[in-house]
Design brief:
alpha+beta
């Protein structure tokens, strides 16, 4: 979770509303994102796929 009082990070990754989740690779590259509730199963699957 990232708190950015300036909202600059929101602009950079395209967040336009809350709740929004963006899954990032360790180097900061976006994997995917969700607006609204996000699917736990998909999050876990993607985390396993991209684990270093």
């Amino acid at each position: 979770m990232l708190w950015d009082e300036s909202f600059v990070s929101w602009q950079v990754i395209g967040v336009t509303s809350q709740p929004t989740a963006v899954m990032l690779q360790p180097d900061g590259t976006p994997i995917t994102g969700w607006i609204g509730p996000f699917p736990e199963g998909e999050v876990l699957r993607l985390a396993a796929e991209h684990a270093g």
